[in-house]
Automatic annotation (TrEMBL):
Keywords: Signal, Transport. The lineage of its organism: Bacteria, Bacillati, Actinomycetota, Actinomycetes, Micrococcales. It comes from Sediminihabitans luteus. Residues 1-27 form the signal peptide. Belongs to the bacterial solute-binding protein 1 family. The keyword Signal applies. The keyword Ion transport does not apply. This is Carbohydrate ABC transporter substrate-binding protein (CUT1 family). It comes from the Bacteria. Coiled coil: none annotated. PANTHER family: ARABINOSE-BINDING PROTEIN-RELATED, OSMOPROTECTIVE COMPOUNDS-BINDING PROTEIN GGTB.
Amino acid sequence: MTRMMSRPRTRGAVLVAGGLSAVLALGACSSDDDGDGGSADGGSTDCADFESYGDLSGKTVTVYAGIVAPEDQPYMDSYKPFEDCTGATIDYTADKNFEQQILVQAQAGNAPDIAIVPQPGLLQQLVATGAAVEPPAEVGANVDEFWGEDWKAYGTVDGTFYAAPSGASVKSLVWYSPTQFADNGWEVPTTLDELQTLTDDIVAKGDNKPWCAGISSGEATGWPITDWMEDMMLRVGDPDVYDQWVAHDIPFNSEVPTEALDAVGNYLKNPDYVNGGIGDVSSIATTTFQDGGLPILDGACSLHRMASFYASNFPEGTDVSEDGEVFAFYLPGKTADDHPVLGAGEFNLAFADRPEVQAFQTYLSTDLWANNKASASSEATGGGWISANKGLDPANLVNPIDKLSVDLLQDPNTVFRFDGSDQMPAAVGSNAFWKQATAWITGQSTKDTLDKIEASWP
């Protein structure tokens, strides 16, 4: 369900923890006489939305993330209304080596005030250092209001809630050419059986191979197959079995994971189905994931399973829209009523509980911030950022793929699950799983592949 709003709103955030009171005078509410500060889009901000945070003049909050230029600018732009209306300064630092350095910093006792953490597994490691602190109650209340229980669970460690979700991505997408579909009378499938029928219809027409793919990604080669398998785990199994698999409550080489990887192989290891415009099955391993879906543009292939962020890999000027050169549809469930969605996202984890940190952490958990961030991203980079926040107004999105992704995330029938390999131990999720998936696409059997990944589990 999509909730449209006349303007973004925010919960009244009365911070009782950390000594910050809502009755503080708003001494830094505005940059002009009428109480309006700057907004993320260069317009005006109603500082009444920030009144509960109090006067934070002279206070600084440090934020550390792996989100670098040019994607970092919309984050800083989205912080500006908070800065203008409270008087606080937000000091944002981006680092390509964030995932390694944040652990070092936390263990050494010099962590930032807030870190934007991209994986639940890393979040758990950071909490285990003892450096992370729980957020104020208002953050949890906002997450209860604006996200589902599934999202809150990913910010929870050993039963304690630590971090509100931030951005998100949708991985359960199949890229295609709307023009090619219209010319051939093909319909977007709504079930797995219809996807199979579509694939066979494309083969029967004989103009091209239906699927194209690429999994080469340097040291991370193989990761796109892990996404494929995770999507199939949610479809040939169900979300509960998926959770058991991710937690290793069932073996990696048990019945449902075997069925799921074979379901992937039905498409990616079938020489009649791949690798359109590129080569044979083995070419999938040597084709970069960035190049994997490009043959859609010249009609050499028709289908490419890849996440919402893949839109940025098409050449500049490509019309990515429902009636354009390329677009995406939801990878269907077993039935039209099944609606599992695989995705990823980030979480705002705090390492300090000073009043200004708690105030800013609360702002980041509101729909007001989500809409400010979406507007800033739309203006600065043409989109490419979404959130699962239910208060995100699609009117603030200019990118058609962003709108499609948010529609999926906000659909009340959606059952969301986070990328499985990102939650598994590093020895599995970012090592054996990637390596054995690559060996599998180049000829290794499903049994040997899953047996080896199972043996790698700590």
